[in-house]
Amino acid sequence: MDLTDLRHPVVCAPMAGGPSTPALAAAVSEAGGLGFLAGGYLTAEALREQIHDARSRTRRPVGANLFVPGPEPVDERAVAAYADLLRPEADRLGVAPGTPTGGDDLWAEKLAVLVEERVPVVSFAFGLPDPAVLRSLHEAGATVLVTVTSPAEAGQAAAAGLDGLVVQGVEAGAHRGGFTDGGDYGLLPLLRLVAREADLPLVAAGGIGDGAGIAAVLAAGAVAAQLGTAFLRCPEAGTHPLHRQALAHPAETALTRAFTGRRARGIVNRFLADYSPAAPAAYPHVHQITAPLRAAARSAGDPDLLNLWAGQAYPLGEPIPAGDLVERLGAEARRALRLAAARFGG
What we know:
40% of the residues lie in helices and 14% in strands.
């Protein structure tokens, strides 16, 4: 798939854990953007069902995303200490902290689904897939993208034979998607540095909430903009009501490992503020520890214990249908580019 063929240069970011739905992905693609399904945390069969569901809603391409398993060692004593630290919160909610078993999120099984279903666009976060994975996806006709958060990662990805890069600035909501959870580059400087490092189509992500933001990254060399937070309030998204309520009110965001063990940006609440200093770099172990607490908090209606993922521009979001949002973003981006060109005699 050639990303420059999109009628609107808008990609709906894959948002694992519930917000991404077949209805959302299909609505974005049907409107002329590119919708994504999020394979993270799903079973292989659930991913296959979502692919079929999205295809029943649109004949346009819909992509899918997976998390690459990480080889990073985990400090088991730090993980155990963090679980003990959270025990009073768990007791208050009437649950026990989850068991930090690790695992690869059914990596091989879900890769097989993407190949068998010939998903046209596949993106990866958290790492660079090995050459055999890229070969199998290319043989199945997929365009393959990987998320990078530094120029060095972009160079590695370009050398590996990727078809494009999702360039994620530190402004982005949810997890840092690079090969590690580091990378503190703002989107615009990162985009320009990556453009020098890798001669590949670039999809810009991070802190983009309206058409003017899309115009800015197109002018800086991207072929499209990837927005996630902007779609969280759309009716097609599977965003939890407590999360929707938080997104309707401006507040500070911050990066934290408190919920999952990997840095992610969310709206600051009590859990984020209290436990970020103690949270170890241990994904998915911390995610597994906190999962029962977060589930209980959702049931109890307590937003102070939830991961309220959001990018820095989240107050720009509105509760409108995804297709209407794509159309509006495309029109706003074109208008912003025309006005900028007119100011400079273009």
